[in-house]
Amino acid sequence: MSAAADTATATAIAAISTRGVARDFTAGQQTIRVLHGIDLDVRAGELTYLVGESGSGKTTLISIMCGILWPTEGEVRLFGTDIYRLSDSDLVDFRLRNVGFIFQQYNLIPAIDAASNAAVPLIAQGMDRLEARERAIELLAALNIADQADKLPNQLSGGQQQRVAIARALVHQPRLIVCDEPTAALDARSGRRVMDLLREVALADDRSVIIVTHDNRIFDLADRILVLEDGRITHDGRDMPKDH
User: Fold this and answer.
1) Fewest CB atoms within 10 A around its CB: which of 71, 167, 189, 219?
2) What fold, for 44-70+86-237?
């Protein structure tokens, strides 16, 4: 097989693969199934949106896909690794090196400034603090908040805090970026800037970006839109279905 064919085959392999993924929660003596046998492949270089009503299972699914929450049933592979067969410590290390998270709650450390917050993943991997800070400031500049690098989280607006959280998720160049409503606290212009950056990251370096969103201002940027209803994927396509 030619080198070009090898590359094409590698690109076609799913970055994320789930097979038969189900998740149960217990409420009193009742067991509630919130995900029902999810089979899904997400390719590298793809910007995928996950859309659904509150309670549809979106957060549960992305938590399972990136190694935070164990499934009740099924298998999850990230970049070929069956992540729930790893030891706890190996799973933590795998997640640290391969996954970037952008949460609805920004989870910034109150006592350190914006640049230091953005640099946390690099420092956790052992990078020199000054070098990590410089790399973090480069990303803050790309997000148009380099002038806020020395400020503490409580000195920043909600939108600025969110952009610091986005920089933190991207700074260590993870292969998978998982975002929970990344544009929720941003105006239209800032939200578009963030989405353009996420799309650029996905396309330039063959990373996978999964975004939970209800923001119809950014639906046109998706490569793929998945709709989750009652723990099942009911739509998988380039555009939103007309009944949503």
Assistant:
1) 189
2) Rossmann fold (3.40.50)
∠ CA 175-181-185 to the nearest 5 degrees? Answer: 125
Look up the pTM and report it. 0.82
The long-range contacts involving 231-237, CB below 8 angstroms and separated by at least 24 positions, are 231/33, 231/34, 231/35, 231/36, 231/38, 231/56, 231/57, 232/36, 232/37, 232/38, 233/38, 233/40
Show pLDDT as tens, one digit a residue, over the chain (244 residues): 444 433 344 445 689 999 999 999 998 899 999 999 999 999 888 899 999 988 899 999 999 999 999 999 999 999 999 999 999 999 999 999 999 988 878 899 999 999 999 999 999 999 999 999 999 999 999 888 999 999 999 999 988 998 899 899 999 999 999 988 888 777 888 888 878 878 887 777 788 899 998 888 888 889 999 999 999 999 999 877 766 5
Residue type at position 149: A
Strands, E assignment, the chain: 14-27, 30-43, 47-51, 73-78, 81-82, 99-102, 176-180, 208-212, 224-229, 232-237
Three-class SS state of 203: helix
Retrieve residue 187's tokens.
Answer: 């105006």
**Rg, Å, the chain Cα set:** 18
Q: Within a 13 Å sphere around the CA of 64, how many CA atoms are in the beta-carbon half?
A: 28
Nearest-angstrom CA–CA distance, 136 and 130: 10
Q: Which residues contact 76 (CB under 8 A, 6 or more apart)?
A: 16, 17, 18, 21, 64, 65, 67, 82, 83, 84
